[in-house]
Amino acid sequence: MAFVKERFGDAGLYPVAVISGLTDMDAITLSTANLAADRRLDVAAAAKAILVAQLSNLAFKSASAIVVGAATLRAPIALYLGLSIAGGVAILLAWPWHATAAAGL
After folding, report:
1. Residue 38's domain spans which residues?
2. Exposure string (b/e) for 69-95, b if CB count within 10 Å is 16 or more?
3. How far apart are CA 74 and CA 15, in angstroms?
4. CA 12 to CA 70: how far, in whole Å?
5. Taking a C-beta distance cutoff of 8 angstroms, is the pair 5, 40 a contact?
6. pLDDT of residue 8
7. Among 8, 32, 38, 46, which is most exposed with the fewest C-beta within 10 angstroms?
8. Count of domains in the chain?
């Protein structure tokens, strides 16, 4: 994560968060939190990267459960996890992407 931050800036964090978050949240969360704690990454960018990773993780697990799970569980999984993903995307869309560093978010 630190390499991507140094090489591509904050914008490079989000594709890495999507890929890293697919199957595991531990590494991306710890790496991003450490960067923020060391003041090498803005706290808002760290929070957004973790949220993007979480949405990726939830989407992957939802798709896996729908494909592998029992047919009777497909609709509830799609509904509830879809609502969770939609809520996370709504947070990302509503989150101000500019001047968040000044606000401390």
Report:
1. 2-103
2. eeeeeeeebeeebeeebeebeeeeeee
3. 28
4. 38
5. yes
6. 65
7. 38
8. 1
CA–CA dist 24, 15 (Å, integer): 15
Mean pLDDT throughout 60-65?
93
pLDDT reading at 28 higher than 80: yes
- What's the average model confidence in pLDDT over 19-39? 91
Query: pTM value?
Result: 0.80
Q: How far apart are CA 83 and CA 79, in angstroms?
A: 6
Contact 44, 100 (CB under 8 A): yes
Do the Cβ atoms of 6 and 39 come closer than 8 Å? no
d(CA 97, CA 81) in angstroms, rounded, equals: 25
Q: How many residues does the chain have?
A: 105
The tokens for 73 are 């569980």
Instruction: Answer with the residue of higher pLDDT: 100 or 50.
Output: 50
